Amino acid sequence: MKRALAVRRLAVSGGLVAAAFAIKYPLIGVPNVEPFTLAFFCVGYMFGPAWGLFVGAAGETIYATINPYGASIVPVWVAQIVGMGVAGMIGGWVGLMKNRLNWDRKRTIALAVGAGIAATLVFDLLTNLALAWGIGPFWPVMIAGIPFAGLHIASNALLFILIFPILRRWLLGSASTVVGPSSI
Questions:
Q1: What angle do CA 58, 36, 19 make, to 5 degrees?
Q2: pLDDT for 127-141, tens place per residue?
Q3: End-to-end CA distance of the chain
Q4: I need a surface site. Which of 9, 50, 151, 156 has the fewest CB within 10 A?
């Protein structure tokens, strides 16, 4: 049973990350529209904060390093990795909270959308602070980042509203057929 859960965790995590890469590359020219936050959040939601943190950081390390536009400056690169790790960890916290409070589907989805927006805000704050610190001048760089952060938050809110309920249903449904409902 333990081995089946470990294999499932790797397969589901890898599948979500691979799908995020497959969706992002055609959208590479659209700034701050990305499926990674949702993918890493869902990994955490299913498998806990520690695994979400690990997969978010590892997945973003790969993407931020082999980005077709090239790697970012080191402070921004580190902030991207930390920010997506935090997105996975937040997803894990939402999963734990949902389990402890025994919330219904609508409340869980509303919490996930709010948490996804918060994760995106944390990511944008970290990366904009790193960019302002790395290239300066501080306030002009921070102010210039506001419209991009707004687009990122809005696009992720839309992704979470539209896609999270579908992924949640699929992930929870597939969990009961592979490992058993008591293990999730």
A1: 95
A2: 999 999 999 899 999
A3: 12
A4: 50
